[in-house]
């Protein structure tokens, strides 16, 4: 009984294996019907681990690109993300067959063929699209030429110079190199020169326009040898209209708004302080918002930072102007008080001098009348010599010191007044004229600075 069961099991296994062999043979026959007999024969002896012309010099690989899209260009990460169609052509003498038509094969057959080990040099992250199948194309021509195409999305580093941001131009590259084969094994070339790259003419970018693009061929030198390299250069120019509407116009209007205080009376302290502080705080908020979308790199002093700094300086200067004018008014009032006291002191001195003069004249008149009434005895010679000079010498003595003291006070007051005028009011007789000067100086200065700014960053 046991022997019969085991014999039946062995028979079933043999039957199943025979059926599988027949199905595999039928599949091979079907594949043989797709490929010509010559290609089938060559594929049987084909070794994908050996490059074409293994003993007869390097194999030349021609490349071309089709830029499908450039999705993002990031100034913060200094890179761009693009979707490209990479096409490579080379000739493999082992794949020559008779006929006049090319054969398009399934992309999954690439695992049976030798393909170049091309890679993107500055790629940060790349992937091959695989929906619904891997986006590969294999086409073999009768002379042994192989066309191999891929659809790749890659994020590539791009070193940017942001000193003129947002009026900058950036030149980015896409570099293709061979990873393992040096120039003795593989040579790269562009199939049609600068026309090998297409798709940029119809490309639409958010903030940039593609101004120019060109290709070049070079070699990458490493410690392990010299490797072939193809470089695609493209120049991007940033569109400034967005930044004009978003940053430049609001900041300029804030500067103009700060000038409104020049037409408000100096006595309206709350109104002028409110305008000055509000514009300063608003400008600070605008500057902080403009920096959020930019890289935090201290080595870059960008053009937009310079302009925002200029606007902030003018707004802050308008606030300081009111502080200076208000201080000059207070100093001007104090100087008027000092001058008023000085004039009053001079008036008192003058009145005292008039009274003293009148009293002296009255005394002299009395003395002249007294001799006429009762003549005095004749004075001696000594008295005659001294008496004429005694009235003139004795009377000015008490009056000599006050004029000297008065002259010294006047000199000090005049010097103090000059110092106050030179330091506080800058030789402005009326502090209210400071606003009149500011109404002209601030706008003219702002226009001149704008002319210099735009001329430098647009043409130099």
UniProtKB/TrEMBL annotation:
Membrane topology: Multi-pass membrane protein
Major localization listed first in the record, in broad terms: membrane
The family this protein is said to belong to: Belongs to the ligand-gated ion channel (TC 1.A.9) family. Gamma-aminobutyric acid receptor (TC 1.A.9.5) subfamily. GABRP sub-subfamily.
Task performed by this protein: Pi subunit of the heteropentameric ligand-gated chloride channel gated by gamma-aminobutyric acid (GABA). GABA-gated chloride channels, also named GABA(A) receptors (GABAAR), consist of five subunits arranged around a central pore and contain GABA active binding site(s) located at the alpha and beta subunit interfaces. When activated by GABA, GABAARs selectively allow the flow of chloride anions across the cell membrane down their electrochemical gradient. Pi-containing GABAARs are mostly located in peripheral tissues.
NCBIfam families: LIC
GO CC entries: apical plasma membrane; chloride channel complex
Signal peptide region: 1-22
Domain Neurotransmitter-gated ion-channel ligand-binding: 39-239
Biased composition (Low complexity): 372-395
Membrane-spanning ranges: 240-266, 273-294, 306-330, 440-459
Region (Disordered): 360-404
Subunit and partners: Heteropentamer, formed by a combination of alpha (GABRA1-6), beta (GABRB1-3), gamma (GABRG1-3), delta (GABRD), epsilon (GABRE), rho (GABRR1-3), pi (GABRP) and theta (GABRQ) chains, each subunit exhibiting distinct physiological and pharmacological properties.
Domain Neurotransmitter-gated ion-channel transmembrane intervals: 247-454
Catalyzed reaction equations: chloride(in) = chloride(out)
Example of a GO MF term: GABA-A receptor activity
UniProt source species: Anabas testudineus
Protein name in UniProt: Gamma-aminobutyric acid receptor subunit pi
Record-linked Pfam families: Neur_chan_LBD, Neur_chan_memb
Keyword Metal-binding: no
Keywords: Cell membrane, Chloride, Chloride channel, Disulfide bond, Glycoprotein, Ion channel, Ion transport, Membrane, Signal, Transmembrane, Transmembrane helix, Transport
Database matches in InterPro entries: GABAA/Glycine_rcpt, Neur_chan_lig-bd, Neur_chan_lig-bd_sf, Neur_channel, Neuro-gated_channel_TM_sf, Neuro_actylchol_rec, Neurotrans-gated_channel_TM, Neurotransmitter_ion_chnl_CS
Record's subcellular location: Apical cell membrane
